[in-house]
Amino acid sequence: MTFKATRIALAxxxxxxxxxxxxxxxxxxxxxxxxxxxxxxxxxxFTCRQVGKSLQDQGLLSKTMQVVNLAGxxxxxxxxxxxxxxxxxxxLIVAASSxxxxxxxxxxxxxxxMDQVRWLxxxxxxxxxxxxxxxxKISTLPDLLDMIKxxxxxxxxxxxxxxxxxxxLKVLIAANAYGVEDVRKVKYIAFDGGGEAVTQxxxxxxxxxxxxxxxxxxxxxxxxxxxxxxxxxxxxDGEFADFPTAKEQGVDAIGxxxxxxxxxxxxxxxxxxxxxxxxxxxxxSDEWKxxxxxxxxxxxxxxxxxxxxxxSDSITQIQTISxxxxxxx
Amino acid sequence: MDTxxxxxxxxxxxxxxxxxxxxxxxxxxxxxxxxxxxxxxxNGVAILIPLAFTMGLGATPSLILLTSVYYGAMYGGRIxxxxxxxxxDEPAMMTCLDGHPxxxxxxxxxxxSLSGIASFVGAFFATWGLIxxxxxxxxxxxxxxxxxxxxxxxxxxxxxxxxxxxxxxxSAFAAALGLGLAMIxxxxxxxxxxxxxxxxxxxxxxxxxxxxxxxxxxSEVFIFLEERHGSADAEGRQLKVGRLTPxxxxxxxxxxxxxRSSALGFLAGVLPGxxxxxGSFISYxxxxxxxxxxxxxxxxxPRGVAAPEAGNNAAAGGALVPMLALGVPGSGTTxxxxxxxxxxxxxxxxxxxxxxxxxxxxxxxxxxxxxFMLLALNIPMVGLFTKVLMVPPRVLMPIVAMVSFxxxxxxxxxxxxxxxxxxxxxxxxxxxxxxxxxxxIILGTLLGNSMENNLRRxxxxxxxxxxxxxxxxxxxxxxxxxxxxxxxxxxxxxKVKARMHERGDEEGSLTD
Lengths: 329, 512
What we know:
The complex is a heterodimer.
Chain A: H1 2-20, E1 33-36, H2 43-57, E2 66-69, H3 76-84, E3 92-97, H4 98-105, E4 117-133, H5 141-150, E5 156-159, H6 166-178, E6 187-190, H7 194-203, E7 208-212, H8 213-221, E8 225-230, E9 256-264, H9 269-284, H10 286-294, H11 304-324
Helix pairs in contact in A: 4-11
Chain B: H1 2-14, H2 17-35, H3 41-54, H4 59-84, H5 93-143, H6 146-158, H7 168-182, E1 185-187, E2 192-194, H8 208-230, H9 248-270, H10 276-291, H11 302-326, H12 332-343, H13 352-355, H14 357-390, H15 393-412, H16 415-433, H17 439-461, H18 473-511
Antiparallel strand pairs in B: 1-2
Helix pairs in contact in B: 1-14, 2-4, 2-14, 3-4, 3-12, 4-5, 4-11, 4-12, 4-14, 5-9, 5-11, 5-14, 6-17, 6-18, 7-17, 8-15, 8-16, 9-10, 9-11, 10-11, 15-16
Organism (chain A): Salipiger thiooxidans
Protein name (chain A): Putative tricarboxylic transport membrane protein
Family (chain A): Belongs to the UPF0065 (bug) family.
């Protein structure tokens, strides 16, 4: 009965909304669903679950958002699924990040492009860091880059993504900005996730770590590693204010792993506006600021068309670097 | 003494009616999920996360619920291994080797209760290890660089021979096939897709669960279909259940095995790159090398059941060491648990013990409680589980097929995986016809990727110098064990075989 009642109410609301011609607030997804394009435990999974939980806690969603893990192809399986099979769904959002943009830029989702889906909004950014062990002789970013410049074989940099992935690109962006001639010579070692890469930094197998601030945070607190550069435009707030930016050390490199969502390409405008509104309401709330603070997420406040433009720009940037290092032609 | 005071506090947190109820619920659901082929511990935990959130549980109760599911699933995996020869999850694979033969000999009850006790022993010692040694053990994990990991995996493969077949060549073939299958997917060291044929589903490689369910469960169904078509044999297969508790003599015989395997499994769990499957595998193969003098392993030796079960449950506890002390997941399931910690606003990492002592010690106390609960749940339920054997195969097999399909589709939500599973089912059926053991295939797929990646990492770090592989004392020790483990059986094995032949002649007339 209640189910029927809500449906009628919903139908009425929808008719009312379209009749009056606007009012995105009226949009209520019948069965909100978030696809995390990876196995449980990763960043995308976290984005879906955390946002789902917070949306419900704050009454922005009346029902629990169902999280579906659709792993495979570094997000490509989920992307293809949404484009091919779920293109009309209004209840569906999908977690995305810089990794999504990187793969779209490098053509790693065969046959798919960014304009096949609708980009909703960002929920924060995780700025890239370059770190070394606490007892390392290296103490600034130029120190490290000089070593790489003089003898690229002397420094191994560990990261959690595959070669050509975002962790790899971050260190290349920095090397490029510092004037390292052939960035392909930078020795990058791919590990299964940032945690494993940090462990190997502590074990002394590698000399430097490239990853996200959130991955490094726990080890900085314990004094095991030191961050020699954070790839943000200016210094971050609060407890992260001690980390020098790359920029102030004369290396003009910025790398943010943003987190956000996209929806199906044929999502109705009402649904699109509704989701954008919900996510931006969430973003503006104090609770979300707390979540961001505890997880080392920095502000990145982009919605709707602005966000779409941002994704498109970062894809172009990644394509340029990838071409330079020969990952794509 | 600080430790014990903290542990006492932990028990004070964990021992509320709500938490005990949650632990009981978690243990029960976990056991079922572990027993169902396809649903393993990591999926089991992931499925229950929304439940924890919807119930509005705090950090400690949520963790109690979810770790009970984790431990429960590790217990449950053995049930289908023993009764049906279908591993419920990856680490339970080794239990098939002796567990199912025991069930066929009419000792299903003993096998189940003995493995329950072995699981308990493994988990119990691992939890103590976690309490007393976590800070020191982290240092061991830090001794393992890429070169050492490679040596460890090489050790696993070099002791593989004879684990599951009398024909070494077939074992080697199966392992090579597994290694080949592990190559599929995007190569992380170069970013190039291999053997994917432009199919995006294959970019992340093959899912082990899909391979296991296909190779073991579906091929079992195919074999049944074939047999039933040809003869009436399938109808008449009645198995005796045997007694429901293991006799004292069996316990006595297996006690040293359980203790050794607990220690080995725990160490394998502590290493972030190894995990529970390696734990149960190394426990089994080391135990076989040590005590299998009459060649009874693989034919229903109780020690062959106790070893992997103690090993994989100890590894489950061991995997919590890097998770709690470093914030680095030691297995797929701990990766999920870490994500839960994050969404509960707890930052895992080296400072977790000092910043959130209530969560850590509450969790550890909950592990003890869950472990006792599981023992209490599992031993009386042996009688219930064994009822499965009473179900005639013509009813059971369609259920196995259904659970396989639903389980795999439920995890990945993709019909592509179902096709892959059917492919593996056919492959498994063909290989069984040729008497090729299936376990090495899974081990190859499971460990092959990490082995290759660590080799290439080690070589890249040292600019192409192969001597880096034997550059540290630890890797030299590991290589020495690996080589001894490989060569010794070749020399000693011949003598043993000769002896077995004599005995075989005497017993031959009795067994068949």
